[in-house]
UniProtKB/TrEMBL annotation:
Listed pathway(s): Amino-acid biosynthesis; L-threonine biosynthesis; L-threonine from L-aspartate: step 2/5; Amino-acid biosynthesis; L-methionine biosynthesis via de novo pathway; L-homoserine from L-aspartate: step 2/3; Amino-acid biosynthesis; L-lysine biosynthesis via DAP pathway; (S)-tetrahydrodipicolinate from L-aspartate: step 2/4
Signal peptide extent: none
Positions annotated to bind phosphate: 99
Reaction catalyzed: L-aspartate 4-semialdehyde + phosphate + NADP(+) = 4-phospho-L-aspartate + NADPH + H(+)
SMART domains according to UniProt: Semialdhyde_dh (SM00859)
Protein name from the UniProt record: Aspartate-semialdehyde dehydrogenase
EC number(s) reported in the record: 1.2.1.11
Superkingdom of source: Bacteria
Domain Semialdehyde dehydrogenase NAD-binding residues, every copy: 4-119
Binding site for substrate: 155, 233
InterPro entries on file: Asp_semialdehyde_DH, Asp_semialdehyde_DH_beta, NAD(P)-bd_dom_sf, Semialdehyde_DH_NAD-bd, Semialdhyde_DH_dimer_dom
Main function: Catalyzes the NADPH-dependent formation of L-aspartate-semialdehyde (L-ASA) by the reductive dephosphorylation of L-aspartyl-4-phosphate.
Alphabetized UniProt keyword annotations: Amino-acid biosynthesis, Diaminopimelate biosynthesis, Lysine biosynthesis, Methionine biosynthesis, NADP, Oxidoreductase, Threonine biosynthesis
Length: 335
């Protein structure tokens, strides 16, 4: 089936990556409709070598659209996603707006694609840090049942979009020139620094980003898995890394885990410390897979394992996962 696909937020970091991903994966498109705010009207995006004009995302823009992939922020999704559904489109939304709505499937195709069958028009794309963690953990959970996860993230600034990328680039420029280094996007200087805060703090001292990892794991994989997260912003442009410690019900050796990861969908194992082989965000940038390495037995608990998981947050953490959801809707004949 050929689909008419709209990308909402087409001029943003993730929207641009979505368009690139649709092109690279040869998505069965009858037409691409890039949508954005009125400020971007008149601009165009490149798709398959042609300039496609950007239209305004507003009432009426979704008539005739089969699938609308949104990455325009929660505020825009709240208003525009129901409008798009009313006009006949299926929405795949990358914002946080609909993720925990019980009527909305929250999907990582490698983990829970069957949830798509329950959709009522809107499907949510999980948060980047949850996506790469669960792609890695699902094959182990299926075989050994994970009881508890302790995760610390090392998240790239591109998770904050274009202004965050510009802020760190500008900080590097100012530092090199000897000018004062300022910040407005992040609460403190990010260049040469590490910030243990992503998104706002909640009353109990956890951040919203941390609690997304807890709630989304429960919705997507298993409500019984205990998750203890710490989310940290690091001065990396692209690619989130995660140090993950798990406790399982059944024993799993490092050799078994390596074998499972080497066969799992969407995962590349990079794990040979004798050759200094482990994944890093710089090396994995632009790639589709979730990369797993540094596998070690946790000798301090029964059935414990440590792993290091890296993925391109703009790609698998956002654009690619959304495009894969759209591809799966077609393969399951849900469009
Ligand atoms: C971040 N989780 O990395 C966000 C992006 N969705 O800031």
């Amino acid at each position: 089936k050929q689909c008419k696909v709209a990308v909402v937020g087409a001029m943003g970091v993730v929207g641009s990556e979505m368009i690139k991903t649709l092109e690279q994966r040869k998505f069965p498109l009858s037409e691409l409709v890039p949508l954005d705010t009125s400020e971007n009207e008149g601009k165009s995006v490149k798709f398959n070598g042609k300039d496609v004009p950007v239209q305004v995302a507003k009432k009426g823009a979704f008539v005739g659209i089969d699938i609308a992939i949104f990455s325009a922020g929660a505020g825009a999704s709240k208003v525009l996603a129901p409008m798009a559904v009313e006009e006949g489109a299926i929405v795949v939304d990358n914002s946080s707006e609909w993720r925990m709505n019980p009527e909305v499937p929250l999907v990582i195709p490698e983990v829970n694609k069957e949830a798509l069958r329950e959709h009522k028009g809107i499907i949510a794309n999980p948060n980047c840090s949850t996506i790469q963690m669960l792609v890695a953990l699902k094959p182990l959970h299926d075989l050994f049942k994970i009881k508890r996860v302790v995760v610390s993230t090392y998240q790239a600034i591109s998770g904050g979009g274009g202004p965050a990328i510009a802020e760190m680039a500008n900080q590097a420029k100012c530092w090199a020139e000897g000018s004062p280094v300022t910040h407005t996007v992040y609460p403190k200087q990010i260049m040469f620094n590490v910030l243990p805060q992503i998104d706002i703090f909640l009353e109990d001292g956890y951040t919203k980003e941390e609690m997304k990892m807890v709630h989304e794991t429960h919705k997507i994989m298993d409500p019984e898995v205990l998750v203890c997260p710490t989310a940290v912003r690091v001065p990396v442009f692209r690619g989130h890394s995660e140090s993950i410690n798990i406790e399982m019900e059944k024993p799993c050796t490092v050799a078994q885990a390596r074998d499972i990861f080497s066969k799992a969908a969407g995962i590349t194992l990079v794990d040979d410390f004798t050759k200094l082989e482990y994944p890093t965000p710089l090396e994995m940038e632009g790639q589709d897979d979730v990369f797993v390495g540094r596998l070690r037995e946790d000798k301090s608990v029964t059935n414990g394992l440590n792993l290091w998981v890296v993925a391109d947050n703009v790609r698998k953490g956002a654009a690619l996962n959304a495009v894969q959801i759209a591809e799966t809707l077609i393969s399951l004949e849900l469009v």
